[in-house]
Amino acid sequence: LNLQKGYYIDMFSTKRGLRLCSFILILTLILSMTLTGCGDEFANSEKVDTKVYEAMLNSSFALADTAKNSQVLSDYIEKWARGNDNFKVSHDKHGNVIVSVKALEEYKNAPSTILHCSLETAAPQRTAYAMTTIMYIMEHSQNHGFIRAVFSEPQNGIKQIKKGYLEAESIISLDWSKNNNIMIGSAGRNDYQVHKNIEYQDASYPNAFRITIMGISPTLASKTNQINPIKAVGKLLAELKSTGVLLEIAEFNSGYMNDDGEFVAEANESDGYPTGISTVVMVNDNDVNKLTKKFTKSQTKTLEKYAEDNPNLVYDFIALETPEGQKVISSDDTSKLISFIYTCPFGIYEKDDEGNPVSITNLLSCTTLNGSVDMKLCSMCESEKKLSSLDTVYKTLAGLYELEETKTEIAPIMNMENYQEIPAITRISEISGSVYNEETTYSFGFDNNAAALILQRVPKANIVTYGLSEKNIERQVETILTYLEKSNQFNK
Question: What is the pTM of this model?
Fold first, then answer.
């Protein structure tokens, strides 16, 4: 359009205009292919059926969010798998479920693939995404070689499963929950059992109160901004003693609830935070008012800080009738219990120069059942040196309060410095970029150990720990579908 001369040129009426038009169309097509990734080597053809996936995900969410333990999830998966005639299903006494499907005819020479997730009730959202993704792929993938799905019990499953079930040309572990992110390292974890036989004596004070915290959402031990009920109640009791309140403890138990809300204390049940705690405290007449005020202050602060993330959170304080002949923990053992809980490290223990955590600690359970104090604690560190230093801290604290301490290695440190040389990682990265045009990132994590345990048993495993999240779940599922579709191109 030329406004000065008052006329326009119709470029389509000239050969030059036709050539220009063709050039623009070709350039537009090239740019479109580049931006969408459709011209890439790993462009995908399989799409996720959104309605089907969402229906499966809703069922998984509902189950994972209410399951008391991983066996509930194992039973659900096994029932699902046995409903499909194309699947071969097995399980072991440790709660692991293995489901396999044969390669399609045109994929008989393709490399085999393991899809893995841990049935972690302390991470219901992550577990629901991982379960659903594997189940959907097993049912709906139209292009694949041999696939074995391994659903492992979260604590010792990988250690106890038959080694043959962990061997394949590639392994995709879904124990990770960062969008378009691959884990290339994870912290080592040690658990500690702390034990002390305790003595009982007749109660000296007439007023009994039950302090209860329950309804805490299941949470992995690596999360540092969740309420730990053991520390919360331990701090309350320590503050009462420091202000001169005379108190006795009849019981101190952390654990879980029944569906009807009744508190159930189970020693060493939790792999993450305990979802509740109940303690019975006895005080003198003169200290009832002080106890009430201190509790009210603690209750208000706790609910303000944690209720939003824990919609079922309850923090109660009720008076009890004191039965005749009431027994309480001896004053010496009471002091040692409260002091140990108060001084025991909890949360982020150490950070690096950039403020990132390098070591984390947690209290997992505490109970005075069976005439003893039994506690479970853990430490997670990114280096052997730091992990060893925390071993010394726990050993020193246990000795100070005359507690017996034993250590169990739960997970080794995983440091995949050569991750750029691992085919499964490079291929998932390339495919992921093609599928939804977002660069893959690589991270270190504290809340995952299954891949580390797999590598401990199969050191040369071609493994990738791929993150799933709500933001791009369909694209992430498509990434795995495309990986299986293109597997014929991969050399064994």
Answer: 0.80
